[in-house]
Backbone:
Protein backbone atom coordinates (compact mmCIF):
# COMPACT_ATOMS: atom_id res chain seq x y z
CA UNK A 1 0.00 0.00 0.00
CA UNK A 2 1.39 3.40 -1.01
CA UNK A 3 0.36 5.05 2.25
CA UNK A 4 2.55 2.57 4.16
CA UNK A 5 5.52 3.37 1.92
CA UNK A 6 4.86 7.10 2.28
CA UNK A 7 6.17 7.30 5.84
CA UNK A 8 8.57 10.09 6.76
CA UNK A 9 11.62 7.85 7.14
CA UNK A 10 11.16 6.20 3.73
CA UNK A 11 10.75 9.57 2.03
CA UNK A 12 13.74 11.17 3.78
CA UNK A 13 16.00 8.19 3.00
CA UNK A 14 14.91 8.17 -0.67
CA UNK A 15 13.97 4.51 -0.58
CA UNK A 16 12.97 3.22 -3.96
CA UNK A 17 10.87 0.41 -5.37
CA UNK A 18 12.16 -1.24 -8.55
CA UNK A 19 9.38 -2.01 -11.00
CA UNK A 20 10.40 -5.67 -11.26
CA UNK A 21 9.60 -6.00 -7.54
CA UNK A 22 6.07 -4.76 -8.24
CA UNK A 23 5.52 -7.19 -11.11
CA UNK A 24 8.07 -9.85 -12.13
CA UNK A 25 6.78 -9.55 -15.71
CA UNK A 26 8.48 -6.12 -15.78
CA UNK A 27 12.02 -7.59 -15.81
CA UNK A 28 12.49 -7.31 -19.59
CA UNK A 29 14.85 -4.40 -20.20
CA UNK A 30 13.35 -3.86 -23.66
CA UNK A 31 10.06 -2.94 -21.96
CA UNK A 32 11.36 -0.91 -19.03
CA UNK A 33 10.20 2.43 -20.40
CA UNK A 34 6.52 1.54 -21.02
CA UNK A 35 6.42 -0.74 -17.95
CA UNK A 36 7.90 2.04 -15.81
CA UNK A 37 5.29 4.51 -17.08
CA UNK A 38 2.61 1.91 -16.29
CA UNK A 39 3.96 1.51 -12.73
CA UNK A 40 4.00 5.30 -12.31
CA UNK A 41 0.39 5.61 -13.49
CA UNK A 42 -0.70 2.88 -11.05
CA UNK A 43 1.10 4.63 -8.19
CA UNK A 44 -0.43 7.99 -9.13
CA UNK A 45 -3.91 6.43 -9.12
CA UNK A 46 -3.30 4.96 -5.67
CA UNK A 47 -1.99 8.34 -4.44
CA UNK A 48 -5.18 9.98 -5.68
CA UNK A 49 -7.45 7.32 -4.13
CA UNK A 50 -5.67 7.61 -0.78
CA UNK A 51 -5.49 11.42 -0.98
CA UNK A 52 -1.75 11.50 -0.26
CA UNK A 53 0.11 14.78 -0.57
CA UNK A 54 3.36 13.41 -1.97
CA UNK A 55 5.18 13.46 -5.28
CA UNK A 56 5.61 10.13 -7.04
CA UNK A 57 8.55 9.98 -9.46
CA UNK A 58 9.77 7.29 -11.82
CA UNK A 59 13.57 7.18 -12.12
CA UNK A 60 15.35 5.63 -15.09
CA UNK A 61 19.09 5.17 -14.54
CA UNK A 62 21.31 5.81 -17.52
CA UNK A 63 24.84 4.54 -17.98
CA UNK A 64 27.38 6.56 -16.01
CA UNK A 65 30.15 8.37 -17.87
CA UNK A 66 33.59 9.75 -17.04
CA UNK A 67 32.77 13.18 -18.44
CA UNK A 68 29.68 15.31 -18.84
CA UNK A 69 27.74 14.23 -21.90
CA UNK A 70 24.37 15.91 -21.44
CA UNK A 71 21.36 14.67 -23.35
CA UNK A 72 22.91 12.38 -25.97
CA UNK A 73 19.76 10.86 -27.42
CA UNK A 74 17.07 12.13 -29.77
CA UNK A 75 14.71 9.17 -29.91
CA UNK A 76 13.19 6.73 -27.45
CA UNK A 77 15.28 3.98 -29.05
CA UNK A 78 18.49 5.95 -28.47
CA UNK A 79 17.43 6.59 -24.88
CA UNK A 80 16.75 2.88 -24.32
CA UNK A 81 20.33 2.11 -25.41
CA UNK A 82 21.54 4.47 -22.67
CA UNK A 83 19.73 2.60 -19.85
CA UNK A 84 22.03 0.96 -17.33
CA UNK A 85 21.33 -2.46 -15.78
CA UNK A 86 19.16 -1.23 -12.91
CA UNK A 87 15.39 -1.49 -13.50
CA UNK A 88 13.40 1.75 -13.23
CA UNK A 89 12.33 2.70 -9.72
CA UNK A 90 9.52 4.61 -8.07
CA UNK A 91 10.41 7.23 -5.46
CA UNK A 92 8.29 9.31 -3.12
CA UNK A 93 9.17 12.92 -2.29
CA UNK A 94 7.62 15.72 -0.34
CA UNK A 95 5.95 18.11 -2.77
CA UNK A 96 8.41 20.82 -3.78
CA UNK A 97 11.40 18.72 -2.68
CA UNK A 98 11.81 16.62 -5.79
CA UNK A 99 15.43 16.03 -6.93
CA UNK A 100 15.27 18.79 -9.57
CA UNK A 101 13.91 21.42 -7.16
CA UNK A 102 16.03 24.36 -6.01
CA UNK A 103 15.71 23.01 -2.47
CA UNK A 104 17.43 19.73 -3.41
CA UNK A 105 19.98 21.22 -5.83
CA UNK A 106 21.30 23.88 -3.46
CA UNK A 107 25.09 23.84 -3.83
CA UNK A 108 25.25 20.66 -5.91
CA UNK A 109 27.13 20.32 -9.18
CA UNK A 110 24.21 19.01 -11.18
CA UNK A 111 22.81 19.52 -14.66
CA UNK A 112 19.01 19.54 -14.91
CA UNK A 113 17.19 19.76 -18.22
CA UNK A 114 13.51 19.34 -18.95
CA UNK A 115 13.12 17.16 -22.02
CA UNK A 116 10.71 17.79 -24.85
CA UNK A 117 7.68 15.57 -24.11
CA UNK A 118 7.30 14.93 -27.85
CA UNK A 119 10.31 12.59 -27.53
CA UNK A 120 8.06 10.39 -25.40
CA UNK A 121 4.80 10.97 -27.29
CA UNK A 122 4.12 7.25 -27.66
CA UNK A 123 4.30 6.77 -23.88
CA UNK A 124 2.62 9.75 -22.28
CA UNK A 125 1.95 13.36 -23.20
CA UNK A 126 0.94 14.44 -19.73
CA UNK A 127 4.13 13.83 -17.80
CA UNK A 128 7.28 15.84 -17.29
CA UNK A 129 10.56 14.17 -18.31
CA UNK A 130 13.63 15.60 -16.59
CA UNK A 131 17.25 14.75 -17.36
CA UNK A 132 19.70 14.94 -14.46
CA UNK A 133 23.45 14.50 -14.52
CA UNK A 134 25.60 14.88 -11.43
CA UNK A 135 29.19 14.30 -10.46
CA UNK A 136 30.08 11.58 -7.96
CA UNK A 137 31.52 12.59 -4.59
CA UNK A 138 35.01 11.47 -5.64
CA UNK A 139 34.69 13.34 -8.98
CA UNK A 140 35.47 10.37 -11.23
CA UNK A 141 32.00 9.52 -12.57
CA UNK A 142 28.91 11.37 -13.76
CA UNK A 143 25.63 9.70 -12.87
CA UNK A 144 22.71 10.26 -15.23
CA UNK A 145 18.97 9.74 -14.86
CA UNK A 146 15.65 10.49 -16.43
CA UNK A 147 12.96 11.40 -13.91
CA UNK A 148 9.32 11.17 -14.92
CA UNK A 149 6.83 13.21 -12.94
Residues:
Amino acid sequence: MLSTAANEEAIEQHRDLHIDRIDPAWRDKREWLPDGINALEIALNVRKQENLRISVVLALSLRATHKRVGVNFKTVQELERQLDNSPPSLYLFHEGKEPWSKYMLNGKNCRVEELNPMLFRLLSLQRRFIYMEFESADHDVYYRSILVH
Observations:
- The longest helix spans residues 32-49.
- The two ends are 20 Å apart (CA to CA).
- Residues 2-148 form one domain.
